Amino acid sequence: MYPQQSNHYTWLELRMLLTALDIPSELIIDCIPVELAKRTSGISTKDLLRLINLDYFTTSLDFSYNLKSGLYNVEVLKKCICLQGCRFLSTDDIKMVNLAFTTYEEMDQKGMKINLHTLMRAFKMCGWTIAPLKLAHRIKHLKESFTERGRIQLYEFLDLLPLCEALNEISCHEHRVGPTEVTLRKIYKLDDVNALSWTDDERIAKHLNECFRRDERDYGSVTIISKKLTEPPVLRTQKKEIVLPEELSNNNPSHGGFTAKLHLERSSKAERWAWVVPVPQLQTNNYTPKRIPPIVSEKEIDATEREKRALQYDMKTSDERFQLKLNQKMDHYLPGFEESRPVRPKSEPSGDVKAAIKRSTSPSVFERLSSNVKRSHSSLHSSRCNALMLGIGALASSTRLHSLKSGPHSTKPRT
Q1: How far apart are CA 346 and CA 208, in angstroms?
Q2: pTM tops 0.85, yes or no
Q3: I want to staple 164 with a disulfide (CB 3.0 to 4.6 A). Which of 4, 128, 349, 392 is the partner?
Q4: Neighbours of 359 (CB within 10 A)
Q5: What is the mean pLDDT of residues 57-62?
Q6: Quick one: 74 and 105 in the same domain?
Q7: Stretch 376-404: mean pLDDT, rounded?
Q8: CA-CA distance, 57 to 46, in Å (whole number)?
Q9: Which helix H or strand E contains 98, and what residues bound it?
Q10: Where are the beta strands (DSSP E) in 13-166?
């Protein structure tokens, strides 16, 4: 059942629409303003959509009769009103669509899983069908705009219905090869044996896929007598700057540039053809370049500088602030900790540290170190080394001697 008027609902038609969506009619009618509810003829579609956009029904439909939010139910109601207004879905169709989607949604509050087989079964339950290739192609372009990733909601499912075809309007006849049909190579054709095992759904899906491929590849054929080649480049309903060829030869660019005419052809008789050329804007001595505003304003630069100085201050005082915060926590958990801490004298900043001068290594040093000749202690090293004066050599020898005496392989002296 459709509304009697495409832009108007009687109260009975509105109640039937709400019943098809399993919405209690009192939830909607009680929220309509009094000045509109007093009308005995009903409510117009424009006023109803305006109330929906002003969130008159969002609160009353929020998790009230189903487990969906108010925004979800409002979007479904708005989509059904639009489809019913253009005479695409009747009240019974909306009821079947709601039932089919609820069945295959399986009480999943995130929506129906996007599965080609599931969607085709849901469409069949509604009495509609679509080419699987066309459905996959459409979902590929729409899935980025879906509310939930990998799921489809009821109002998004309703957007796919205009792409479908009614099952009772599809005629799919089985193709049989004639007894004397041959190929280009004079070979007799045979019937497809696999077609005998196809179900009705598979046969309809293959037929729709072939129709979809044929429609997608139909780019049309352009010939010499095609009207597409004789269309005028200048439309009669548009104004264009036209320079006629005879005027172009008489004009001098140095004296004022090209002269253009505004030509508007509205006559339905023989069209006047002209050469359409762009009119350049020539620079003159009085040309003043336009001042381009800067991309970044002075306020933004100042704000960036303040943030930069604040960041530098935070980096320099991070250790002091951490130590201060630690002392405050310790003083909170251990009262008197701050007073018992010894105060360290502040170190005075040292002067400029001179950079260490790295001595260049002569190539002879590498040659001496890489040679296989046994190196001996130099006299210069022996005179400057103070290891023996500090007792390091004596300590090492005594330690070695003690380890030899107390080791597991040490032997007792014979008596």
Answers
A1: 87
A2: no
A3: 128
A4: 6
A5: 91
A6: no
A7: 61
A8: 15
A9: helix 91-105
A10: 43-44, 112-113, 128-129, 151-152, 165-166
Q: Which of the 8 DSSP states describes residue 374?
A: P
Q: Residue 172 — pLDDT band, cuts 50, 70, 90?
A: confident
Query: Are 129 and 170 within 8 A, CB to CB?
Result: yes
Provide the angle, in degrees to the nearest 10, between the axes of the packed helices 116-126 and 91-105. Answer: 150
| Region label for 45, one of left (φ > 0), alpha (ψ between -120 and 50) or beta (otherwise) | alpha
pLDDT recorded at residue 239: 42
Q: Are residues 61 and 127 in the same domain?
A: no
In this prediction, residue 343 carries a pLDDT of: 65
Strand partners, 362: none
Residue 19 covered by a domain: yes
**Boundary of a domain, candidates 216, 250, 271:** 216
Instruction: Tell me which residue range forms the domain holding 150.
Output: 94-216
pLDDT at site 244:
45
The pLDDT of residue 221 is above 70: no
Written as six digits, the tokens of 88 are 């695409």
Question: Residue 327 corresponds to which amino acid?
Answer: N
Domain for residue 389, yes or no?
Answer: no
Q: Residue 8 pairs with which residues in a beta bridge? A: 5, 44
- pLDDT for residue 41 is more than 80: yes
Count up the domains in the chain and report the number: 2
| Token representation of residue 162 | 């205009």
Of 237, 246, 250, the residue nearest 274 (C-alpha): 246
Return phi, psi of residue 398, to 5°: -70, -35
Give the tokens for residue 382. Answer: 């022996």
pLDDT at 238: 43
Radius of gyration of the chain from Cα atoms? 45
pLDDT value at position 98?
93
Whole-number Å distance between alpha carbons of 158 and 93: 11
Residue whose pair of structure tokens reads 């310790």 in the numeric block: 330
Q: What is the mean pLDDT of residues 124-144?
A: 91
Mean pLDDT rounded to a whole number for the chain = 77
Instruction: Quickly count: other Cβ atoms within 10 Å of residue 63's Cβ.
Output: 11
Q: Distance between CA 152 and CA 75 in Å, rounded?
A: 13
String of b and e for 29-47 (b: at least 16 CB within 10 Å)?
eebbeeeeeeeeebbebeb
Tens-place pLDDT, residues 263-316:
444 444 444 555 555 555 555 566 566 777 778 888 899 999 999 999 999 999
Residues 110 and 180 placed together within one structural domain of the fold: yes
Are 165 and 179 in the same domain?
Answer: yes
